[in-house]
Amino acid sequence: MKNHGFVLTAGLAILKTLLLAIVFTIANMAAIFLSPFSESFRQLPAGPPVRSILSLLVLGFWNAIVLGMVVSRTRWGGIKTSLCLILIFWTVAYGLTQVETIIFSESLAAISIYDALMLMISGFFTLIIFIPSGVALHGGFSRQYNPLQDERKRLTNRAVKYGVLAVLYVVVYFAFGHFIAWQFADLRLFYSGTTENRGLLYQISTSLHLIPLQLLRGLVFVLAADGLRYVMNKDKAAYVAAVTLLFMSSGVMLLAPNPIFPDAVRIGHLLELLSSMLVFGLITGFIMDASPRQDILKLSMR
Predict the structure, then answer these.
(1) HEC assignment per residue over the chain
(2) Radius of gyration of the chain from Cα atoms?
(3) Exposed/middle/buried for 88, CB within 10 Å: 0-12, 13-18, 19+?
(4) Which residues of 113-142 are buried (b: 16+ CB within 10 A; e: fewer)?
(5) Distance in angstroms (rounded) separating the CA atoms of residues 259 and 265
(6) 35 — phi, psi (to 5°)?
(7) pTM for the whole structure
(8) Which of 110, 167, 174, 269 reaches 20 to 30 Å from 278, CA-CA?
């Protein structure tokens, strides 16, 4: 009977995840269609439609897994959970991603700053459909708000953790950018106009102006992770996994061919982002969840 119950629960979870992946795909396509992109952006070749849809489904499935992990462990009611997760998901998957697009707008001739902003807006519209749908499907709107806090609210040295992780992000950004993405000759040609690889120190010396911007991006990543820490009730492993998968979603977005990057450049960034966000997500999750935990039920009995 126990095995039967486990199979039923697992099957239901998979069905919910698949349904949410479909909701994400439809919402994403509708948001792109309705957003006022420039005519030049709309005329860019988008690649085979079937492959694009499949890639969206994979991204939707990925986000649905993260959403299910968080909603099933939240102590908040559905409205508060939805609003907080819309902000967190949008910041990581769309806001910070398109800020990077704007930073390198001189090299990305296929997309204007205006269209990068439109991608941010279309992402927001995708999430205001996807997130509440996931919260509802996982029973979040029937959950009562629990005002009790656990010991994670009493984190000490939070500013120190924010600072250390923001600096760590810059280190990860340049290290993985050089040792993974920059090893692709087509990518070097795309950004620098030459296939010559002059080494990490030279690359950093010519990119010093990026350090303050990447420090700020790293800090925002950490703030998003800290937001998830308050939404999720307990279960350290689930929290670390949720942070890591959420951070990696920016890489999953590059699975599909797109008009912004040639394939060789896209694959270089795909490998860079998946690996760097895996490392940074794991470290961020462990550090931000390093405080003692107490069960909510035990606190309520005091």
Answers:
(1) CHHHHHHHHHHHHHHHHHHHHHHHHHHHHHHHHHCCCCHHHHCCCCCCHHHHHHHHHHHHHHHHHHHHHHHCCECCCHHHHHHHHHHHHHHHHHHHHHHHHHHCCCCCCCCCHHHHHHHHHHHHHHHHHHHHHHHHHCCHHHCCCCCCCCHHHHCCCHHHHHHHHHHHHHHHHHHHHHHCHHHCHHHHHHHHCCCCCCCHHHHHHCCHHHHHHHHHHHHHHHHHHHHHHHHECCCHHHHHHHHHHHHHHHHHHHHCCCCCCCHHHHHHHHHHHHHHHHHHHHHHHHHHCCCCCCCHHHHHCC
(2) 20
(3) buried
(4) eebbebbbbbbbbbbbbbbbbbbebbebee
(5) 11
(6) -75, 145
(7) 0.89
(8) 110
- Alpha carbons 183 and 185: distance in angstroms, whole number: 6
**pLDDT 10s digits, 142-194:** 766 555 444 444 455 788 899 999 999 999 999 999 999 999 999 999 999 89
Dihedral sign for Cα 278, 165, 220, 234, please: positive
pLDDT tens-digit profile of 209-236?
999 999 999 999 999 999 998 888 767 8
Instruction: Provide CB contacts within 8 A for 29, sequence distance 6+.
Output: 53, 56
| Residue 258 vs residues 55, 265, 270: alpha-carbon distances, Å | 11, 11, 12
Residue carrying the six token digits 């992946």: 21
Distance CA 59, CA 38 (A): 25
294 burial class (0-12, 13-18, 19+ CB within 10 angstroms)? middle
Q: What are phi and psi of 84, to 5 degrees?
A: -65, -45
* Beta-bridge partners for 74: 232
Q: Which residues pair with residue 232 across a beta bridge?
A: 74
Q: Are 136 and 62 in contact (CB under 8 A)?
A: no
